[in-house]
Amino acid sequence: MTVGDIHVLEIFPILVFFISFFGLIISRNIVKAIVLIMLMQTSVILFWLGLGARLGNIPPIFQDATEVYDPNTIADPLPQALMLTAIIIGIAVTAINITLLNALFRKYQTVDWQPMQDLATVDERPES
Amino acid sequence: MSVQEIVSFIIMGIGIAFMLVGIIGMFQPKKDFYYRLLVACKIDTIGLLTIGIGLAIRHGFSFFTGKIILIIIIIMVLNPLVAHIIAQAAYRSGYVSICKDGDSFDH
Amino acid sequence: MAIALTTEILLVFWVVNAIWIVFAKKTYRVMIFFGVFSLITSVIYLFLGAPDVAMAEAGISAFATIFFIVCIEKYYSRGSGLKAEMASAAKPRNYFKLVAAFAFVAMLCGLFIFFVPTTTEYAYTELRDLYLFQFMRDVGGRNAVTAIYLGYRVYDTLFEALLLVTAVVAVIHLSWFDRTIVADGRHSEVERSRMTKFAMRIVCPIILLFGMYLVMNGHISAGGGFLGGLAFALFLVCRFMVLGVYDLPIEKAMKLEELVFINIIILPIFAIFTGFIYFYGYATEMFQNIYLIAMNFLVGLKVAFGFFVLFYRYIAIERLPDKEEVVEAFDDGED
Fold first, then answer.
1. Which listed site, A20, C200, C229, C282, has its alpha carbon 20 to 30 Å from A44?
2. Residues A121, C95: contact at Cβ < 8 Å?
């Protein structure tokens, strides 16, 4: 499944990564920013899995120990194991992000970057 | 193609037809939230059940069929329950259904 | 061929979903699109021959959606968040900045696509062949993914468990544990209907059974500690949220999590130095299976307690204090 010389499973994750990056630049909402960080992580995971597997590959699980398989029809188990841990770490990071957002919301009563920044600069102004 | 496969394909086709009808019903104009929820829940449950039964017939008597039957039982319990919880949450948060002629339901 | 066509359609819809998320005005719509996005990702993982990752993605996205919706509900219910969102959506955009950002990102994307050599060949086939054809002798089991994260690269799993502990500790220290008022009864606030309670009484044991199935079969089929742990966490959450049973206080859950973490550190070291794994002549298949099942079970308990604590923090304890209380608390902190 290729377009010209380029692998489709590498093109689409790169596209989604940069769309999320663009969204991080232009969006003012912090909740959306956290979701977009999760999107970037998902696209990186799909890119890694696409490096070691092709569509329609069988999973690296052998029910019959004696049967000999062609290794090019089996998905690579190493990216899968690494990405399994990456997903769990990603949800932990997201949980911390949401907690930080809650703390910020309690202090400034907004979820927008710009008013929050204005309020923060007001807070830090030295008393004359 | 054996008789078993033909029967299973017909049943799975009926399930997909149910889901198609449900999707058309979901996008009916000028209908409110409860109407859409009713259509979505009923058609989803029936479609998934029918497709599951078709798969069970196709695979015959095996361990795989046992798993499918377990999934069917869980769907039968959980899918209407989810619709019930969503409708309850909508009602509690103050959503009032509006009939076609402008009356509002008084629950 | 059918799989390739399906995946192309799904990938296009995946990218469209990402664009919808970027340009959505309301945060609830962002959550709906995020759910669809995760579902499509999970299906693509399954087509790529990665059932473990697909199941992990599905479970994780459910948890993440609940976290986000609870978070949004908090600031929507106060009103000011909603007002700020509407104001920021109504504000006219600076189109010059928008076009400049788009040009910058498009330039970076083009650089990646055209100058990073993409190839249709497989990458790192030597390591893959080593893992695929020796894992049954070295580590045991039938699942190569489990063999890698419990055998060859077990220290990765240790550090992942450590990161989860760190995340739980960080969440508890950043949120407002001292300032919140927890009643002694500790029931879920929403009173569920009888129908829900009856159905959940049927479904809860099935969830627990499914988790045990995933953990016990983690080394011979898809599944394993992470997914079993998610199912255990769902069991605890369902009991608390729907049935109102709360017999595992948060302090006990944290203690248990740390205890399980110590066991996760001890068991692989013990196994490696006593020859359960890696010492080819001595490790019989039975000992290998015992090691794998025990390790999967410990990882599952770890993930279950970690996610239960996180979930409980978000849903049950963490309430918004009144405004005066906020000011007072921040004054305390700054001193």
1. C229
2. no
Closest of C258, C224, C240, C211 to residue C311, by C-alpha:
C240
Task: Give chains near A: 3+ CB pairs under 8 A.
Answer: C
**Measured between beta carbons, which residues in chain C are less than 8 angstroms from residue B70?**
206
pLDDT tens digits, C9-40: 999 999 999 999 998 877 888 888 999 999 99
- Say yes or no: B77 contacts chain C, CB-CB below 8 A: yes
C255 token code pair: 């203690």
Spatial CA neighbour of C52 closest among C296, C302, C330, C316: C296
- What span, in angstroms and rounded, lies between the C-alpha atoms of C130 and A22? 40
Nearest neighbour of C149 by CB, restricted to A28, A53, A84: A84
Residue C310 structural domain: 144-322
Q: Does C262 map to a domain?
A: yes
By the CB < 8 Å criterion, does C165 face chain A? no
The domain segmentation of chain A, as residue ranges, is 2-59+70-124
d(CA C99, CA A126): 37
Closest chain A residue to C310 measured between Cα atoms?
A95
Residues in chain A: 128
Percent of chain C with pLDDT over 70: 76
Indicate the CATH number of A2-59+70-124 among 1.10.287, 2.60.40, 1.20.1070, 3.40.50. Answer: 1.10.287
B77 and C196 within 8 Å at the Cβ level: the answer is no
Measured CA to CA, the distance from residue A51 to residue A77 in angstroms comes to 11
Confidence of residue C191 (pLDDT cuts 50, 70, 90): low
Q: Is C71 within 8 Å of A102 when comparing Cβ atoms?
A: yes
Q: Which helix (H) or strand (E) holds A3?
A: strand A2-3
Report if pTM > 0.80. Answer: yes
User: Cα separation of A116 and A110, whole Å?
Assistant: 7
C153: helix, coil or strand?
A: coil
Considering its fold, how many domains does chain C have in total? 1
